[in-house]
Specification:
Length: 397
C-alpha cells in the first residue's frame, strides 16, 4: 500500500498526510451536516437519525471524493491508503453524526474483498465504492447471537441456485439495504463450523420479507424472513461450507473503535463547553469529573490508535481491538450519564421537545449507548478474548 503509515511517535500525533486527510474530511462533513443542509431531513425511525434519501445522497458525495473506499486496494478501485485513513473517516463521520458509518463497504467490504470471485467483485465493488448501494450483515438469528454455531437458517442447492429458509434478526439497516451478507447451514450433518456457507443475497427477491422492529430509541432493526427464497447460484460468496471461517475472519477485520471515539469526543466537548458557559464549570466536583473523563478519552483514543497502527502494519490485533471496543463503549455510557446529571431534569427531555437542551442529545445517548456493549460481540466475550489472547489465561474447560 502507498502512503505513509501511522506510527506512534512520542506525542502520538498523526503523520502530516493523515492529519491533512482528517482536516479535509472534517471540512466535508461540516459542510454536509450544516443545519441548512440537514433541516427537514430527520427520520427518527432510522438508526442514522436521517432519511434514506439524505443518507444515500451524502454517501454518493463521499463516494465521488473517494472517501468510502479510501483504504480499499487500488487494484480494486479504491484509494489504496492504509486502514488508518478509513478509521479517521469513521471518527469524523461519528463526530459529525453523519449517516456514513454503516456504509456497504464498512459492513460487507471485507467479505466482498476477501471472498468474492472476479465477476462478483466487478458487480458489487464499483457501486460500494461510489456509495450507490446499501448492504447489511445478517448473521444473528432469534436463537443465535453470541453463539453463532446455533445458526439454523438453511440453504440447499436447487437447479443452478439455492433455496433459503430461516429468520435473521437484529439486522442493522435491513429495511433499506439492497443486499444482505448472511451465513446459512448448508450441510446439516456436519459440525456447525464445517457446515455453513456465506451468501450475498438480493433482498428484493421473492420469498424474502423484511420486518422492522423498534428499539428503545425508536429507530428500527430488521428481521429478515426467508421463506423458500430462491437465490441464484452466484449468491454464494466464497467457498461451499467455509462460511464459518469466512465469517470469523470478517468479524475480526478492520475494527479500531475510532467511530466510538468520534462520538465520545464530540459529547465530551459539548459537556465541557456547557460547563464553561454556566456556573457548573466552577464547581469542584464537576471539574473533577470532566477532567477524569478527559483522561479516559485520551486513553480510549490511545487504544484505538494502537489498533489502527497495527492494522496499518498488516496485523490483526485481536485483543487490542477488544480492549478498544470495551473501553470506548463503556466510556460512552459514562459520558452520557454525566451529561444527564449536569443537565438536570431537562436533560431527560427527548429529541424534538422544545426545551430539551442540545435537542435531547444526552437523553438519546443515555439510551443509545446501552446497546454497543451488547452488539458486535458482547463486552463479556471481548473480556474473554482479552483474558485469553492478552493475558494468556486459560479458558473454561
Ligand atoms: C443495535 C444492534 C445492532 C445489531 N446489528 C446487527 C447486524 O447488523 N447484524 C447481525 O447479524 N447482528 C446484529 N446485532 C446482533 C448482535 O450482534 C447480537 O445481539 C449479539 O451478538 C448478542 O447476541 P444475542 O442478542 O443473541 O445475545 P446472547 O447471545 O443471548 O447474549 C446475551 C448476553 O449474555 C452474555 N453472554 C452470552 N454469551 C456469553 C459468554 N460466552 N460469556 C459471557 N457472557 C455471555 C452477554 O452479556 C450477552 O450480552 C445487533 C444487535 C444490536 C443490539
Amino acid at each position: 500500500m502507498k502512503g505513509r503509515r501511522y506510527t506512534p511517535g512520542v506525542d502520538f500525533e498523526y503523520p502530516a498526510e493523515l492529519a491533512a486527510f482528517q482536516a479535509e474530511v472534517r471540512a466535508f462533513f461540516a459542510e454536509e451536516m450544516a443545519p441548512e443542509r440537514t433541516r427537514g431531513q430527520r427520520d427518527p425511525r432510522d438508526l442514522t437519525g436521517y432519511s434514506e434519501a439524505f443518507e444515500r445522497a451524502l454517501q454518493r458525495r463521499a463516494g465521488e471524493r473517494g472517501y468510502l473506499g479510501i483504504s480499499v486496494p487500488r487494484e480494486h478501485g479504491g484509494g489504496g491508503r492504509p486502514l488508518s485513513y478509513k478509521a479517521v473517516f469513521g471518527f469524523e463521520a461519528a463526530y459529525h453524526d453523519a449517516p456514513a458509518i454503516d456504509t456497504a463497504l464498512t459492513l460487507v467490504g471485507s467479505q466482498v474483498l476477501g471472498y468474492a470471485d472476479d465477476r462478483q467483485r466487478e458487480r458489487y465493488l464499483p457501486r460500494m465504492l461510489a456509495g450507490e448501494v446499501l448492504m447489511s450483515v445478517a448473521y444473528t438469528e432469534p436463537e443465535a447471537g453470541s453463539d453463532l454455531t446455533r445458526i439454523q437458517t438453511s440453504a440447499r442447492r436447487e437447479g443452478g441456485g439455492f433455496v433459503i429458509d430461516g429468520v435473521k434478526a437484529l439486522v442493522t439497516g435491513a429495511h433499506k439495504s439492497e443486499y444482505a451478507c448472511l451465513v446459512a447451514r448448508t450441510d446439516p450433518d456436519a459440525p456447525p463450523r464445517r457446515g455453513m456457507s456465506m451468501f450475498l443475497v438480493d433482498l428484493r427477491g421473492s420469498g424474502i420479507r423484511v420486518e422492522r422492529r423498534e428499539t428503545m430509541n425508536r429507530w428500527t432493526l430488521g428481521e429478515i424472513h426467508f421463506e423458500s427464497a430462491r437465490v441464484p447460484g452466484d449468491a454464494l460468496l466464497g467457498e461451499w461450507n467455509r462460511g464459518w471461517p469466512q465469517m470469523a475472519g470478517s468479524l475480526l477485520a478492520e475494527r479500531s473503535g475510532m467511530a466510538h471515539m468520534g462520538w465520545a469526543t464530540r459529547n465530551l466537548e459539548i459537556l465541557c463547553a456547557h460547563a464553561r458557559g454556566t456556573e457548573l464549570g466552577g464547581r469542584g466536583e464537576v471539574r473533577e469529573r470532566l477532567a477524569a473523563l478527559r483522561c479516559e478519552l485520551a486513553t480510549g483514543l490511545h487504544f484505538a490508535k494502537r489498533v489502527m497502527w497495527r492494522q496499518d502494519r498488516g496485523e490483526v490485533p485481536v485483543h487490542e481491538a477488544s480492549m478498544a471496543k470495551v473501553y470506548a463503549t463503556e466510556l460512552l455510557q459514562r459520558i452520557a450519564r454525566l451529561g444527564l446529571e449536569l443537565l438536570g431534569p431537562e436533560g431527560t427531555l427527548y429529541r424534538g421537545s422544545p426545551s430539551a437542551p442540545y435537542d435531547g442529545l444526552f437523553a438519546w445517548e443515555a439510551i443509545e449507548r446501552i446497546h454497543p456493549t451488547l452488539s458486535v460481540g458482547a463486552n463479556e466475550l471481548q473480556r474473554d478474548a482479552i483474558a485469553r489472547a492478552g493475558l494468556s489465561l486459560p479458558g473454561d474447560p
